[in-house]
Specification:
The longest helix has 16 residues. The chain has about 240 residues and is of the alpha/beta class. It has 6 helices and 11 strands. It binds S-adenosylmethionine. The site of S-adenosylmethionine has 18 residues, from helix 1 and strand 2.
Amino acid sequence: MSSVTEHYERILSPVYSWMTGGADAALEAGRAEIDALDLHLPAGALVIYLGAGFGMHAIPLARAGARVIAVDSSEQLLGELRRLAGDLSITLVRDDLLSFRAHVNEKADLVLCMGDTLTHLPEHTNLDFLIQEVAESLVPGGRFVISFRDYSEALVDERRFIPVRSDERRILMCFLEYEEDTVVVHDILHERAGDAWETHVSSYRKLRLSPERVIGSLESFGFETRREPGMRGMVRLVGKLG
Ligand SMILES: C[S@@+](CC[C@H](N)C(=O)[O-])C[C@H]1O[C@@H](n2cnc3c(N)ncnc32)[C@H](O)[C@@H]1O
């Protein structure tokens, strides 16, 4: 079993933007999702993005005039974000998202943790800690947007085999193995190498978080919360600090 960071280094970081349909398409989808949130941020708003990846939402936010602090543990994905962002106002932080406050010295207008990053937390007890840290980092009326996969209902039999993306050079599949509070995600990547296929397999654990559990935590730290459908079957929660 790999840690999250090892798993991204071994399998996911090198193919992440390909997996989401290519950087251009993903940035456009990210822009559309940010627009759909109807955030009306003030000019020069401070935005903290926890698990920014290659910048699918961070780049559109910076293009719209926000100052973005992008936190991620993957050096490779942050490198891709830097290349795609050019001279936009995005500060890159390579660290565990649970330590984000060490890198911020003013209150933020918006914090995001999108694209199923929340389920990568090591323990269920980290959820309340993170939400409290975010609540204490926001201006009054600031928002916390989360999107994640609801793994609380276990898939069974062949529904646990999920084709992620394939083309003539690559095939990415994942297999889900459910445990009581967690799910082990086995990623299987086939890549064309000359006339042959190379296979890479790596596994890591994600949390089975129910939307009700996350909403309960948001509300206990003072967020008024709206629930809506997110991208690619995810749940999206928009918490507004009272
Ligand atoms: C599923 S990807 C989502 C990326 C991006 N939010 C998106 O929607 O495209 C999860 C991201 O979180 C990062 N990540 C996972 N656990 C982390 C942690 N504890 N601290 C910082 N980054 C983390 C990974 O490196 C990866 O970039």
